[in-house]
């Protein structure tokens, strides 16, 4: 009885082991893919951060106020670091999510920095034009004012001269 | 005084005087405008500092004892001041070295070849001072013959196991080195040091400590 059922049992066991081995290897592949996804998402976030920073620096060089952009950039950097920690801890889905949030934030910041740079260029151009236009006006106003002051002073001096009386020197 | 006197007192216009004043005023206004539109370049630098528990250059170790036991919480504060005339993206890289591991080179401005166990990245605007806590403790040690190593380090509540390959004879003369890396536009990556006035400059800091094991209570 035992000898007749042994090949059947062996066949069943073989099938079970094969299935288990197959599912195990599929699971490992899925895990590796997730780890690769997480690492890829972090790399993409870092690259996006680099591009966003260059745009922020461009806006800063044009004279734009980038303080709030820098603040939010640092928040995105925290998300990237969080993603790295999650990756190390094996929390791959959370790592991918954190990295993607960071990338979205970096991209939004890049867009805002671009707009700020355009605005800052226009502001700087206006400021420069104002200074260049105001300079000759200020020169002429200061000149006219100074000239009038000098004339007043000259007139006052003349008046004092005219009011002088000639007196005979008293004999000592 | 009669109106005839007023007529006599009228001062004649002096065209030469007017133009002289105009020339002098124009020169002064042009100079001021030029200075306003082209501000004088200032010296560019970063200042990297490492402070103790009370944000002062003291009390770097628990009980002021540089012999650190596993579990001892060491509280440092890293300060970084940006005077680079613009926003900067920096990375402070923490490395574990021993007495013989080459530290960063001040002359050639090259970083230590040891890999970092933590990279702290931040963006600083012009004239900003950034202070961040660097609270660490040794989570796990490894002994091999007479050499001690730090297998795990807890930094700001995160356990780190990478970049801690350095060992020290008897646990003596470990040091944590902090290097300042700056994001470079051209290479689009971080570089150790920065360029200022045609020169390369760099900043790094280190603090020594010894690793000891708690004495066994009998």
Properties at a glance:
heterodimer, A: 172 residues, mainly alpha, 3 helices, 89% helix, 0% strand, B: 218 residues, mainly beta, Immunoglobulin-like, 2 domains, six-stranded antiparallel β-sheet, six-stranded mixed β-sheet, 14 strands, 14% helix, elongated
Give an overview in words.
The complex is a heterodimer of chains A (172) and B (218). Chain A has a domain at 34-128. Mean pLDDT of chain A is 85; it is low at 24-30. Chain A contains 3 helices and no strands. Chain A has 172 residues and is an all-alpha fold. Chain B folds into 2 domains: 3-37; 45-211, Immunoglobulin-like (Sandwich), CATH 2.60.40. Chain B has helices spanning 3-9, 15-37; strands at residues 45-51, 67-68, 74-83, 88-97, 118-124, 129-144, 147-155, 158-160, 167-169, 174-184, 189-192, 194-196, 199-201, 204-211. In chain B, the strands form 3 sheets. In chain B, strands 1, 3, 6, 7, 8 and 9 form a 6-stranded antiparallel beta sheet that branches. In chain B, strands 2, 4, 5, 10, 11 and 14 form a 6-stranded mixed beta sheet that branches. In chain B, a hairpin with a 2-residue loop joins strand 6 and strand 7 (147-155). The interface between A and B is medium-sized, with 36 and 29 residues.
Helices and strands, with pairings:
The complex is a heterodimer of chains A (172) and B (218).
Chain A: H1 2-61, H2 67-88, H3 92-162
Helix pairs in contact in A: 1-2, 1-3, 2-3
Chain B: H1 3-9, H2 15-37, E1 45-51, E2 67-68, E3 74-83, E4 88-97, E5 118-124, E6 129-144, E7 147-155, E8 158-160, E9 167-169, E10 174-184, E11 189-192, E12 194-196, E13 199-201, E14 204-211
Total domains of chain B, how many?
A: 2
Strand content of chain B: 35-45%
Distance between the termini of chain B: 117 Å
CATH architecture of the largest domain in chain B: Sandwich
Q: What level of helicity do the residues of chain A show?
A: over 70%
**For the record, what is the CATH homologous superfamily label of the largest domain in chain B?**
Immunoglobulins
| Strand/helix succession of chain A | HHH
Number of H- or I-type helical stretches of chain A: 3
Q: What is the number of helical segments of chain B per DSSP (H or I, 4+ residues)? A: 2
Can you write the helix and strand succession of chain B as a string? HHEEEEEEEEEEEEEE
How many DSSP-defined strands of chain B? 14
Range of helix content of chain B: 10-25%
According to CATH, the fold-level topology of the largest domain in chain B is: Immunoglobulin-like
């Amino acid at each position: 009885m035992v000898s007749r059922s042994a090949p059947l049992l062996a066949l069943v066991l073989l099938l079970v082991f094969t299935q288990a081995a197959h599912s195990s290897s599929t699971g490992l592949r899925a895990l590796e893919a997730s780890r690769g996804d997480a690492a890829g998402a972090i790399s993409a976030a870092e690259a996006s951060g680099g591009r966003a920073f260059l745009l922020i620096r461009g806006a800063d060089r044009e004279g734009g106020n980038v303080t709030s952009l820098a603040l939010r950039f640092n928040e995105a950097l925290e998300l990237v670091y969080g993603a790295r920690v999650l990756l190390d801890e094996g929390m791959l889905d959370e790592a991918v999510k954190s990295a993607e949030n960071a990338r979205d934030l970096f991209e939004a910041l890049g867009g805002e920095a671009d707009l700020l740079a355009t605005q800052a260029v226009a502001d700087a151009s206006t400021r420069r034009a104002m200074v260049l236009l105001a300079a000759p006006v200020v020169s002429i106003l200061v000149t006219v004012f100074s000239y009038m002051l000098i004339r007043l002073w000259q007139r006052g001096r003349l008046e004092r001269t005219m009011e002088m009386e000639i007196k005979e020197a008293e004999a000592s | 005084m009669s109106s005839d006197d007023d007529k006599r007192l009228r001062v004649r216009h002096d065209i030469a005087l007017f133009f002289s004043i105009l020339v002098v005023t124009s020169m002064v206004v042009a100079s001021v405008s030029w200075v306003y539109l082209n501000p004088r370049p200032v010296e560019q630098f970063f200042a990297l500092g490492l402070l103790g528990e009370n944000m002062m250059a003291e009390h770097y170790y628990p009980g002021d004892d540089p012999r650190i036991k596993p579990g001892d919480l060491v509280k440092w504060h890293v300060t970084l001041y940006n005077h680079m005339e613009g926003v900067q993206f920096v990375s402070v890289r923490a490395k574990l070295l021993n007495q013989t591991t080459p530290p960063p080179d001040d002359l050639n401005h090259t970083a230590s070849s040891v890999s970092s166990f933590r990279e702290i990245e931040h963006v600083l605007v012009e004239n900003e001072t950034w202070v961040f806590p660097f609270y660490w403790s040794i989570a796990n040690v490894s002994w091999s013959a007479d050499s001690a190593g730090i297998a795990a380090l807890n930094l700001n509540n995160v356990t780190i196991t990478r970049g801690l390959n350095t060992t020290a004879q008897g646990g003596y003369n470990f040091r944590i080195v902090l290097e300042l890396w700056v994001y470079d536009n051209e290479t689009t990556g971080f570089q150790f040091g920065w360029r200022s006035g045609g020169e390369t400059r760099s900043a790094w800091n280190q603090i020594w400590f010894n690793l000891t094991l708690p004495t066994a209570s009998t």
